[in-house]
Specification:
61% of the residues lie in helices and 0% in strands. The protein is built from 6 helices and no strands.
Length: 188
């Protein structure tokens, strides 16, 4: 799924949790941090590649990589640029359920409570599993234990983009209506 959609879904999930939890919980989820964690896996994996790609357009001595898409980034071979190998490694790390739970557990130990906003990262991985095909970055959700991946559909296909963004709009409209209704009830 594209990074914007990941951020929007993470934000809507955080808002939904806050609507359900309030006023029982004193500390609502910070939506900006849900969004940050929702985009984190792709930012972590691709920021260096995009920076390299932009740098190669500015500085002629940097080897060029074209648009980061199927055929230009994959498959990684021994002859591929180092940056492509790095991107794949970072993608494996940031899209692994094992790595997520390890980092989530460490954060829990450090802060002495679960850092629930990090579940934006978990949501990202779970949404990527069915929305990535073998053609372009299938989600390595079991890495490093297994190389098993699911051949889903490509998130960039028009039918999926239209469906996905339509559902995002519906989700935000529902959250708006529920929030407005809750405020109305609270004022009575």
């Amino acid at each position: 799924m594209d990074i914007l959609a990941h951020g929007l879904w993470a934000g809507s999930a955080g808002k939904a949790v806050n609507l359900i939890r309030q006023p029982a919980e004193k500390e609502p989820l910070k939506l900006k941090w849900m969004v940050v964690w929702g985009i984190f896996p792709d930012f972590f994996a691709f920021a260096i590649s995009f920076s390299w790609m932009i740098g190669s357009q500015i500085f002629p001595f940097i080897p060029k990589i074209e648009h980061l898409g199927p055929g230009n980034m994959e498959p990684v071979t021994q002859n591929s640029l180092f940056i492509m190998h790095l991107t794949h490694t970072l993608y494996n790390i940031s899209h692994s359920l094992f790595i997520f739970f390890l980092i989530f557990g460490l954060a829990w130990l450090i802060f002495k409570k679960p850092v629930w906003v990090m579940t934006g990262w978990l949501l990202h991985i779970l949404m990527d599993i069915p929305s990535h095909s073998y053609d372009f970055y299938p989600t390595p959700f079991l890495w490093p234990i297994s190389d098993f991946k699911i051949n889903g559909f490509h998130w960039g296909t028009p039918w999926f983009m239209i469906t996905n963004y339509s559902l995002i709009i519906i989700a935000y409209l529902l959250l708006y209506i529920i929030n407005k209704r809750n405020k109305k009830r609270a004022s009575l």
